[in-house]
Specification:
single chain, VC0802-like, seven-stranded mixed beta sheet, about 35% strand
Length: about 325
């Protein structure tokens, strides 16, 4: 006979630890839309507390679970014994998806091994724990884990995976927003272009005259405040002895953007921040320029592409 449990007992935890596969079920709110059921494997499940569990969500062609959790939070996880004593265990509750770059990502990811293609951590606060007999479930023998996902991720590389998620994980099959980093409401078709060269940010006294070297080159910016004269210019222009921070690369938003367009720069810097990259921006009448350190440029580009932006760059070097 089936039983209910107030918490994840030692017996329940041992049963979970013996299973090599589990299933997650979600659905959109209301009567419409598609119910989703996904199998999960590898070393991706953890019991975090008496009524809290989590699993590592790996990159795939769909994003149904994350999209449904963003909309309504309902989640059921099922474990099923395919050998030994028959048993089915279901964990019901409210879930949430934590993505890389979120404030609590490091803590959420800490219980798991580093895995290729990691996309999110799904945390479930369990409000009902119940098992049932499983008498009609057939026996299967566990042979081993598949290696195809790790092989695919290695072949794709970070930028390839980012582009894949941008294409495949933007929305559910019913049109619900998927990964936040991909489904951000950026203007459709927004492109970023590489600005050649390396730049330096310089600080001069507030009352200093504007030096001739500050305005040489195709791109420069000068800002005077009560505290300083700040110059952004090609790093080769900067004389010795000037207080400066060299080694910046620049990406420019293509085209002209009207002033009523809201949130463009915020969404761009958020995408770069999710990749763990520091950024500063310069805005003009027509558009925005983003500067990132040379060493961080590949991660910044990958983060922008993962968020759905088109980034046209020179060969990264």
């Amino acid at each position: 006979m089936g039983k209910e449990f107030a918490e994840l007992t030692d017996d329940v935890r041992k049963f979970i630890a013996r299973q090599h596969v589990f299933f997650v079920a979600t659905a959109p709110a209301g009567a419409g839309g598609h119910v989703n059921l996904s199998p999960k494997g590898l070393d991706t499940f953890r019991v975090l507390g008496p009524t809290t569990v989590a699993y590592l969500d790996l990159t795939g062609s769909g994003v149904e679970t994350i999209a449904h959790l963003r909309e309504n939070g309902r989640l059921t996880i099922m474990f099923c014994a395919f050998d030994g004593r028959p048993r089915i265990l279901r964990l019901y509750g409210r879930g949430r998806a934590i993505e890389p770059g979120d404030a609590d990502w490091s803590a959420a990811a800490a219980p798991f091994p580093a895995m290729s293609g990691t996309r999110a951590v799904i945390v479930l606060e369990v409000d009902r724990i119940a098992d049932s007999c499983g008498y009609a479930v057939p026996r299967y023998e566990y042979v081993g884990d598949r290696t195809q996902l790790a092989d695919w991720c290695e072949k794709k590389g970070p930028e390839g995976i980012a582009e894949y998620k941008a294409r495949k994980n933007r929305a559910s099959i019913d049109g619900l927003p998927g990964l936040r980093s991909v489904a951000a409401g950026e203007p459709a078709g927004l492109r970023l272009l590489d600005v050649p060269g390396r730049f330096a940010v310089c600080k001069l006294p507030a009352d200093a005259p504007l030096p001739a070297w500050a305005t040489g080159g195709g791109l420069f910016s000068v800002t005077r405040t009560a505290d300083e004269l700040s110059v952004v210019c090609p790093e080769e222009n900067v004389p010795a002895g000037v207080t400066s921070e060299p080694g910046w690369r620049c990406l420019r938003v293509a085209g002209a953007m009207p002033f009523h367009l809201v949130g463009v720069l915020a969404s761009l810097t958020t995408a770069v921040a999710r990749a763990g990259v520091s950024v500063f921006a310069v805005s003009t009448f027509d558009t925005d320029y983003m500067f990132v350190k040379d060493a961080d440029r590949p991660r910044a580009v990958a983060g922008l592409r993962a968020a759905g932006y088109t980034v046209e760059t020179e060969e990264l070097r």
